[in-house]
Amino acid sequence: MTAGKILKGIAFAHPAGAAALLLDLYIPADPIQDSGPLPAVVHYHGGGWRTGVRSSLGPSLDAAGLSPIERLVDAGFVVASADYRLSSVAHFPAQLLDARAAVRWLRAHAADYNVDPHRIYAWGDSAGGHLASLVGLTAGSTEHPGRDDLHDRAHISDTVAAVAAWYPPTDLLRMGEQALSNAIASADDPGSREALLLGAQPSEAPEKATAASPVRYAGKHAPPFFLAHGTADRFVPPAQSASLAAALEAAGADVELLLIEGADHMWQLPGDDPAAATQATDATIDFFRRQAQKL
């Protein structure tokens, strides 16, 4: 990040029986005078809902020093990278409730950080992409009721104006059948990440798996979506992004799908080539810029 500041460890929610949830707030350098409030992105980290830390996009990207969050800040966006309860602490829908709480917190404090409350977006990678997608598709829904236990913000909207998701799980019931032949992990495996999230194997709890699947909520009401996935992803089948894109398109929603040939999870390519990560980051920033220019 060429300028600006980072405010780390801001408490935005305190779920009952769990530690306070924190976020890191990345703020651009002073904008041009009279430019008005800035667009903002709430980011959710990956890690299979069981590991990972806020402000990280995974070990491969972190080690490469590509800094997608900082690049987004350099492009003029405030970024809030938020915690959520891991599956070792709580089962779904706790993670979705936490993700929504982060959006409400940012909107409640928009004036404090020069954020435009009408231009708040969601972005996540892997498990975080799953949550970002659910935030975009279930905003305002009463299907997964919950409240922010740090401050009561139920009256504040949790809607986002657009979503970007990198290699997200989108249909937990079909992940096993869609897995590539060389897959490292499958949702059908005993003790899978998906089973830990739900508290049961997806095939044994289809209603839970469906309720946790973004594809189930695809509809015309959806905000604009950008989905990016590597065609060689051994952890989350590329068909997961393609399926959500198809469902959104069929419903008449605005969706863009980027499939990067030969890229594995976390944009890994042979020889640690950063080309896929760079392409995905460039496309994501371009997507959010175009969304921000709509208002």
Summarize the structure.
By secondary structure, the protein is α/β, with parallel strands linked by helices.
Structure description:
- This protein has 295 residues and is an alpha/beta fold.
- The protein has a single domain, classed as Rossmann fold, CATH 3.40.50.1820.
- The chain has helices at 59-64, 68-74, 94-108, 127-138, 175-178, 193-198, 206-211, 238-250, 275-292; strands at 5-13, 21-27, 38-44, 78-82, 115-125, 163-166, 225-230, 255-260.
- Helix 3 crosses helix 4.
- The chain is globular.
- The chain starts with a strand and ends with a helix.
List keywords for this structure.
Rossmann fold, 29% helix, globular, 9 helices, 8 strands, 295 residues, alpha/beta
